[in-house]
Amino acid sequence: MHLAGWTLRPQAYLGVLLTSISSPERHGLNMKAQLVMRMMMNFTPEPASVAACRRFVEHELSTCPPAFVENAVLATSELVTNSIVHGHSGGALAVELEGPFLRIEVSDDSPDVPVEREHGPSLEHGRGIPIVAALADAWGVSSNEGGKTVWISIAVPHY
To answer: Mean pLDDT, the chain, as a whole number?
Structure first.
């Protein structure tokens, strides 16, 4: 199966979302089926989890253009690292392809919202959020029961 030039692997969860509304044209709606692919994994609060999450994203997006995969992997690395360092817990990584965007979500048990910190060449920390913001078309934070989800959205390249 192909989507925007991507070959989707059969082990990925695929679903077709159809909306049923009587006479959608009358409401000005253009009804189309949309392919959704969502993969998830849990991670522990260990440094090795960052590498495991990077490999997971790289594997799931292996049929995509290399530069797109590199950006998604780097953003994932920063989000998971922030979750482990600042959230002090394990969490969950979700990668979702829906329509023209890839969405990456990292959820953890901390209610603390990430903030951009001062950063510079001599400082060891503080670059994560600026890197994520530079790679993403949009990013944000959603509160959830017992914690938060930090998400980014990256436009899918058409090739």
So the answer is: 77
Distance CA 40, CA 13 (A): 10
The 10s digit of each residue's pLDDT in 49-62 is 999 999 999 999 98
Instruction: Walk me through the domains of the chain, giving residue ranges and CATH numbers.
Output: 37-155 (3.30.565.10)
Amino acid 110 reads: S
**Tokens of residue 129, six digits:** 């959020």
57-60 long-range Cβ contacts below 8 angstroms, 24+ apart: 57/93, 57/95, 57/104, 60/12, 60/95
Q: Would you state the structure tokens that stand for residue 101, as one six-digit string? A: 């965007």
Burial of 81 (0-12, 13-18, 19+ CB in 10 A): middle
pTM over 0.70: yes
